[in-house]
Specification:
Distance between the termini: 18 Å
Number of domains: 1
Number of strands: 8
Largest sheet: 6 strands, antiparallel
Radius of gyration: 13 Å
Order of helices and strands: EEEEEEHEE
């Protein structure tokens, strides 16, 4: 496996929103909380972020509206994303293949 570092917010079993950089592209994976169902989504909505937004990710404190700054490019099930053993540092690069 090849790994890419992630930056994340909100953790419940796995990161619920994270950003990964691959080459010169930034991707946002967002599994939103459904208050009616009292559960997180079983899918990540995937967005491509601009280089400007992606490069400033450490400076952005509130990620709740980060998806509005991206371009939606698809979705992927949370269960199909492979994280490192800590589930907090890296993601397998293979998950990005369908979005390039």
């Amino acid at each position: 496996m090849s790994w890419l570092p992630i930056k994340y917010r909100d953790f419940y079993d796995v990161p619920r929103v994270f950003v990964v950089e691959s080459g010169d592209r930034y991707y946002l994976f967002d599994s939103v909380f459904d208050s009616e169902a009292d559960e997180y989504s079983t899918d990540y909505a995937v967005y491509r972020l601009s280089a400007n937004t992606g490069s400033r990710i450490d400076e952005i404190r509130d990620w709740r509206s980060l998806s509005s700054e991206g371009t939606p490019i698809g979705a992927v099930s949370v269960a199909s994303v492979i994280f490192d053993k800590t589930k907090r540092q890296f993601v397998d690069v293979g998950i990005l293949e369908r979005f390039k």
